[in-house]
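Entry 14: structure prediction run for Putative lipoprotein. Input pasted below.
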Amino acid sequence: MRHPGMIALCLCGTVALSACGGNRDAAAARAMQSVNVIDESNLSDIMLTVGDPNEAVAYFTKTSAANPDRIDLKRNLAKSLVKAGKASEAVAVWTTVVASPEGTSDDRVALADALIRTNDWKRAEAELNQVPPTHETYERYRLEAMVADSKKDWKKADSFYEIAAGLTTKPAGVLNNWGYSKLTRSDYAGAEKLFLEAITFDSTLFTAKNNLILARGAQRKYDMPVLEMTQTERAELLYTLALTAIKQGDVTVGKGLLHEAVDTHPQHFEAAARSLAALDANVTN
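Run finished. Output tokens:
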């Protein structure tokens, strides 16, 4: 004799087990998806920070093509293109990102940066003009300063450089740019001050050291400043100072600095030796 109640109970148990199995499968799928997202995020970070730029471009090109609705992948592709020195291609991708509903003010600033790298200053300025004034970031004001520089609007440039320097804990780069701006205006004393400040924030920034020598040389300060430097760096800085002196007509001083550069370099300093030989030949003739 059948027992309907027992059969119903068994059926309910089967359904319950099926439901539990489905829940477990769904939970497992969600867990795996979370792991995949974490792994993908970590890989993206690695590609952007320590990976080879061209490998990063290849990775983000592939993943972005496979996920055309993922703006974050397009954003990372644009960043990797900039790192790989492919600014023109980055402009196209950043333009797409900015035009999307997920586009942000940071994205527009990044587009302006890519445009500056392609020497499209007019469009870069237009993009920066669309950034809300409330978006006060280091990168925004650094670019605003560069645009003002390109227009020789020194008052605005100085203001933007100052703001940018105050918005970062690592201002060496922007201080160096500001100093170079002063250098192009022939404000050599102002440039010297900014280069020295840049070096206090980053003693490894050789560009700022070299620019400092140019600023000092332009003021006929031919003594080497007290800086943290390697022997090779010292030789190269002496060479820069020598060329600056010669350019200003201080040939004897320049020749002495060339000799010092050759003697200081831990290896054969071909460029300095060649300049010295050319100078000697010119004097003989």
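Notes: The radius of gyration is 30 Å. Will compare against the previous run tomorrow.
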